[in-house]
Amino acid sequence: MNRKFIASIMSVFVGMSVGISNKVNAEINNGWVNNNTGWSYYENGSVKTGWVNDKGNFYYLKDDGNMAVGWINVNNKWYYMSESGAMKTGWVQYKGAWYYLSQNGEMVSNDTVDGYYLGVDGSWVEKNSTNDVTEINDESKNNITMKTEKTEYGLNTKEITVYITNNGKQSAYYGVEYAVEKFVDNKWSKVPFKDEPMFIEIAYNLEPGKTSSQVISLENFENLTAGKYRIVKFSGKCAAEFELK
Fold it and tell me: Which part of the chain is the Bacterial Ig-like domain (predicted)?
């Protein structure tokens, strides 16, 4: 057998080997691969990073190519990836706390979803039965002060603005519910509403050192006469006094 013929056969064999090897590598390096340090996703032989949509589920691959699980922060937005790596949406419970993830996976914070208030850290803040301030910030009630815009108003006044200040070191949450009381016979007595009010289910976040305001309608009460009054919030632990003349 001459050398030229042998060289020709070897060339064909090597070509077939390379072709088979490339085909095997292409098959191996497309899709999910477990590389002993985690799952990675390959496309055309190259490892992917960032977001990947696989069969309708979104996954996030870190800079090293490994699939992310648990909480991740991408462009200052929080997402939660399940144990399988798939991005979660809707309500998620994590270490006893509830969070809500929008349809695009972003965690919702400082907003109300399905009637539930989500705090600045995204966790559901459980409000007490008065819909006034959250149980989680019960200690902050002692650091909340309230005052009206003026100390005296005319009898024809229709509304009063009350200012709420957080003097504490932690955020406080409060709702729109309030009551009005009048000082009669050396004690405070609740002034009845004309009709039973329907306060909306919402909670506002008042950060430390900040002041917010709420407009109180006096038209919700019947036969207000001259005297000393106060607007009450936070389960009766905060009040702002004023006088009608």
Answer: 141-235
